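Support request, please re-run this one:
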Amino acid sequence: MADEIRRLIRVRTRKGARFKRDGFGKKSQLSDSWRKPRGQHNKQREQKKAKGNLPKPGFGSPIAVRGMHPSGFYEVLVYSADDLDGLNAKTQAVRIAASVGNRKRAGIQEKALSAGLKVLNARESPATGRTRPAPVKAKDEPVQKKEPKKKAKPKPKKKEKESPRVKEDKREQPKPVAKKKVKAEPAEEKPKKTKTPKVPKAKAEDASEKKPRKSPKAKAESVKETKTRPKTAQKQAARPKKKTGTGVKDNE
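Re-run finished. Output below.
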């Protein structure tokens, strides 16, 4: 039966329904505790989307675990040690009220634990009414000096794991063959070219070959002769142009 109760508690927690009051995030004075919306134009009452769900029978927990603590026990609120009488340790657990003082709380907790009851809000060392004095150090105890902190060595970087595809690609690729170094043979020495001396061009020794320069008087006389020549002689000298024709009369 204990396994069935655990299963039903998991079913209850999976639903995770928490109904919040409409407008609790808009005003700071409103808490998120559920209040039924009763407004005429309230969108949550009209069940609009994104306005929150309303409590319905489908959100309820199974009857076997309804009102049960997630630990599998039913809670019992205790105010004094007398309230522990008649409680069943197998199905019930104790919760000490918040209004109970520290001295009274210690007595209730010790009695509940001795009876085999589970305390849901137990304290490891419940304080008494008195305050504990601070521990006093002995004079003879040597003062311990703080050792200087050692600098942490930098951690070596982890090599990134290669994916199986990259490994397969590396295996498929052929390994490069090392090329043998061939010694270079000494090149044959080419004969050096000898520069031929430039021979200066022979200058014309004969001065008679040069054309004689005309004097300014001779130039003036030649110009006069060209002007005095008759024009008729020049026209006769010109050859007549030949007439080109087909020899066929027009309009025949």
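Confidence is low (pLDDT under 50) at residues 128-133. DSSP finds five helices and three strands in the chain.
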